[in-house]
Amino acid sequence: MSAPETRSRPWALWVPLVVFGAFVALFVWGLARTKDDTVRSRLVGQALPAFDLPAAIAERPGLKTADLKDGKPRLLNVFASWCIPCAAEAPQLQKLAAAGVSIDGVAIRDRREDLGVFLARYGNPYARIAADDLGKLQIAIGSSGVPETYVIDGRGVIRYQHIGDITPDDVALILGKLKEAAQ
Amino acid sequence: MIAEFGLAALWLAAALALLQFGSGVAALRKGDSPLAALVRPVAVVQGALALLAFAALLLVFAETDLSVKLVALNSHSAKPMMYKIAGAWGNHEGSMLLWVTVMGLAGSFVAVVERRLPEPTMIATLLGQAFVSLGFYVFLLFASNPFERLNPVPPEGQGLNPLLQDPGLAFHPPTLYLGYVGLSIAFSFAVGALLTRQVGPAFARAMRPWVLGAWIFLTLGITAGSYWAYYELGWGGWWFWDPVENASLMPWLAATALLHSCSVLAARNALRAWTVMLGVVAFSMSMVGTFLVRSGILTSVHAFAVDPKRGTFILALLAIYIGGALALFAFRAATVTEGERFAVTSRESALVFNNVMLSGILGIVLMGTLYPLVTEAFGERVSVGPPYFNPMSAVFVVPMLIVLAVGPLLRWRRDSLSRLRMPMVVAGVVGLAALGLAIVLAPGKVLPIIGLALAPAVAVASLLPLRGRKLAQVKLPLWGMVIAHFGIAVALLGMAAEGAFTTERLVALRVGETTPVGPWQIRLARIEPVAGPNWTALEATLEASYAGGKPILTHPQARMFWAPVQNTAESALLTRWNGQLYTVLGDKADGDANGGRWQLRLWWKPLVTLIWLGGALIALGGLLALVGRVASDLRRLVASDKIAFRRVRQGR
Amino acid sequence: MSAIKAKHQRLILALIALVAILAAGALAAWALRSQASYFYLPADLAANPPEAGRAIRLGGMVEAGSVAKAPDGVTVRFVVGDGKARVPVSFKGIVPDLFKEGSGVVAEGRLDSEGRFVADNLLAKHDEKYVPREMKDMTADQARAAVRNTQ
Q: Cytochrome c-type biogenesis protein CcmF C-terminal domain: from which residue to which, for each copy (chain B) (predicted)?
């Protein structure tokens, strides 16, 4: 990395520091770039693609595109029983459901019995729950992970995408987006 | 309760590190500061508190306290106890805590035992150690608290990841971490020596055991990691030049160079500024490695939890430590006086050559690893693989190995090659014979042929330093060097043989059919479902017979895990003295439930096990050298204590 | 062969190290230019194909209905598309578990003389949270188009 024993040239002693500075600059750039890793769906502002998925549990119906075009804004929550952040956002979803928001769920690569346990434990705020065993709808709506929550207006157009779990601080934001979507 | 106790211990340890740093600075500024007496005891208590915090984390994991977020995310009540414990350090927060714990303990040990260095240098070293620890404490307490609680408490943990339930993976990361930490101690010594301008043999001798220790752990970690990737990924390869692998190789290369320059400084008081520089580079490579692995700025085949935020923090620490140390180097190195001189033909020169070649390999690996990042800055997306790394590193490895054959036979300071005519002829003849044989056996494969020719020559040459000595009187460090160099030859032979003689076969077989691979005949006897604690699998029973011998059964599996849902191929290995049969079961090729063909991938890899045997020998050599050095240091310590004691009594 | 002029020892050592490191740097730079394998989307590959035999990586969606096994039972042929162009791929080996029609894939390999992509290795989407970095740009619109075609 540096020349050994370069006493004769004091400036040469700064070379390692300069080289190191270049590396740090590269790393800073790399980190700044990876922040874009949260892939925003480019479907925001567009209509949902057509789909028709079966029910994930017996107690709730499945989900198809037409269900999301009933004139009322709603939330589409992408979740799975095997994901801990989904459990963490459960109280917030309950709160939203209690506030009169209709929420539809899409369970990604899940098993019926696990889902039952999950819903019994954390509550079931969903009006419908679809089983997306291959993650097809997830890809179709531009979701890159679980949990994610979409605000859908009454005409089936995606108005907002929330990536990651809904924290208590996010509830007001989601309600605001729903209100915007209603207009 | 335990979690809060652990967190309290961590806070206290951080406060003591701050005190250790502060009193060290005060003591250095004013020579007779009363605070100077504080540094050593504080360092001891700081280490003990960090250990306490780590013990608390182990306890929390052992009893699967799911109210602790880290446990909920990384453990599961159904896990075997060994993996519960290993889970404590198998994640980012826990591994950082392990890092500060080991570093604190090492600091305590240095504070208690180390007496050779002048007191100011000692204080400066402990000051440096406290400074490095302090960064990690801040990181832990403010950005990745391992004891954070979770509310509501989940009914079950999430950490049943099947890929991580593997003894290799449970002990592989901590081994590497111990290596990284050892280099951070060496870094502290280098900073201490620079601060007080005391770069000399005493400094090298004090630093050497830590470098050796770190190097042993890195060697073991890389060897184990390579074997893990070999049997777990099911791709039949043992080294992929993946960023995560390179991240562990780069500190090893720097540590190897440091180890050798340390011995020059200790024995001959030469290469002074260079050794300090390498101390800084070695630690910076371990930080860069941690950064690359944890920040996710490079894509890797190894699954790793990445988080750009953590990456930012590690990068900040890296910039402060290494930037600071290099600035200090730039200011101070010019005033480090010149070391002893030596002739072109001398042990020193051979070691300088080794250092330059190792730095060259380090540069090649570093550039290759970061190149995708550089091109991405210019909008081009590339990946760099074996076609770059293999020949480019060989350009430096081959001359290094040739000098390795001769170097240990040279005398310090000045020697003549004519004295070494005999051993050079012996090694040369062995090498040429092997070269001829290799060209016949593996025509056209350039790198494997070079490896097959060099390995026996280096193996013979590495044993020559023992020639003419009474083996019973050979000191441990010399044994260590001989065994480590021999281990290099063994590993090289394994790599070259694997490259030259591997036969691979990809077939679709019906139950009852037979296929040859190398000297083996493999018969697919049956396929049946089996179930494990958290998976189900299809298991193939293969009857493998070597050169017409009695068939041996081997069982590759295709496993399906639940929670989270995941499929993995479990390769099956059959080890003979002369190689390994590696089998992987793939999908159904065609047909219905009752008939049809199954995909099988089979490799016969002659001598492949020598790669890891060589790695183990290298580590063993390091261990012998370390034991030898520490034992003689302790003897000297006891003797000087006795003399001091007598003096005190006589003086009375 | 014996002693160097004492005065110049440091200088000579420094020079040797400098030359070695510069040589290493130049060598590495040259090798990286010629050996790095570039990443292509099918549209890039169609517009600007690399010479046959050069190691590249191809990323895209596995087209629905395109996966077929050859009679030998171990060669898989399929088509990778991005909504704009389609590239036929052949792969000899055991496909990764997550390799499915309609899902993302990155194939490592090279073009043969007939414009078919011969893959040595397939990297499928790893889990819900992992998308190969190179595919990030396409997950949104191209992936949507690809998936829409499959439904």
A: 315-629
Mutate to test the interface with A, among B326, B369, B561 (most CBs of A within 10 A): B326
- Give residue-wise pLDDT tens across range B379-428: 777 888 888 999 999 999 999 999 998 888 888 888 888 888 888 899 99
Q: Do B414 and C3 touch (CB under 8 A)?
A: yes
How many CB pairs below 8 A link A and C? 77
Collapsed DSSP state (helix, strand, coil) of residue B504? strand
Residue type, B594: N
* B352 lies within 8 A of chain C by CB: yes
User: What does the block give as tokens for B563?
Assistant: 């929670």
B328 in a domain, yes or no? no
Distances (CA, A) of B334 to A144, B122, B274, B331: 54, 22, 12, 7
Q: What is the pLDDT of residue B603?
A: 93
Under DSSP, is residue A110 helix (H, G, I), strand (E, B) or coil?
Answer: coil
pLDDT tens for B438-465 read 999 988 889 999 999 999 999 999 999 8
Chain C residues touching residue A79 (CB < 8 angstroms)? none
Å from A41 to nearest chain C CA? 6
Cα B328 to the center of its chain, rounded Å: 28
Which domains occur in chain A, in start order?
1-37 (no CATH), 52-182 (3.40.30.10)
Q: Is C127 on the interface with A (CB under 8 A)?
A: no
The residue of chain C with its CA nearest to that of B339 is: C10
Residues B586 and B626 occupy one common structural domain: no
- What is the predicted pLDDT for the residue at B455? 95
d(CA C127, CA A109): 11
| SS3 category, B174 | helix
Q: In the prediction, which pLDDT does B319 show?
A: 92
Beta strands at C86-92 and C75-81: parallel, antiparallel or unpaired: antiparallel
Residues B481 and B567 in one domain: no
Question: Are residues B568 and B537 located together in one domain of the fold?
Answer: yes
Residues of chain B with pLDDT under 70: 155, 158-165, 168-169, 296, 299-308, 337-338, 533-534, 561-566, 591-594, 651-652
- Looking at beta carbons, which residues of chain C come within 8 Å of A7? 10
Residue B270 lies inside a defined structural domain of this protein: no
pLDDT at A1 over 70: no
B373-395 as b/e: b if 16+ CB within 10 A: bebbeeeebbbbbeebbbebbbb
- C15 and C27 assigned to the same domain: yes
Structure tokens at B456: 């026996």
Residue B29 and residue B153 in one domain: yes
CB contact under 8 A, B284 and A29: no
Report yes or no on C1 lying in a domain: no
Q: How far is C17 from chain A (nearest CA, A)?
A: 6
C133–B385 CB contact, under 8 Å: no
CB contact under 8 A, C143 and A139: yes
> Do B618 and B568 sit in the same domain of this protein?
no
What's this model's pTM, rounded to 2 decimal places? 0.83
Q: How far apart are CA B458 and CA A79, in angstroms?
A: 59
Nearest-CA distance from A79 to chain B in Å? 13
Residues B543 and B631 in one domain: no
Q: How far is B511 from chain C (nearest CA, A)?
A: 14
Residues B12 and B128 grouped into a single domain = yes
Considering its fold, how many domains does chain B have in total? 3
Q: Do A1 and B277 touch (CB under 8 A)?
A: yes
Cβ(B95)–Cβ(B131) under 8 Å?
no
Q: Is the pLDDT of residue C145 over 60?
A: no
Give contacts of B295 with chain A, Cβ < 8 Å.
Answer: 27, 30-31, 34
Q: Is residue C24 part of a domain?
A: yes
Query: Residue C146 pLDDT more than 70?
Result: no
Measuring CA to CA, which residue among B129, B361, B344, B333 is closest to residue B249?
A: B361
Q: Residue A4: its chain C contacts at CB < 8 A?
A: 10, 13-14, 17
User: Do the Cβ atoms of C147 and A139 come within 8 Å?
Assistant: yes
ipTM of the complex: 0.78
Residue numbers of the domain that contains B49: 1-165
Instruction: Identify all chain A residues contacting B281, using CB atoms and an 8 Å cutoff.
Output: 1, 16
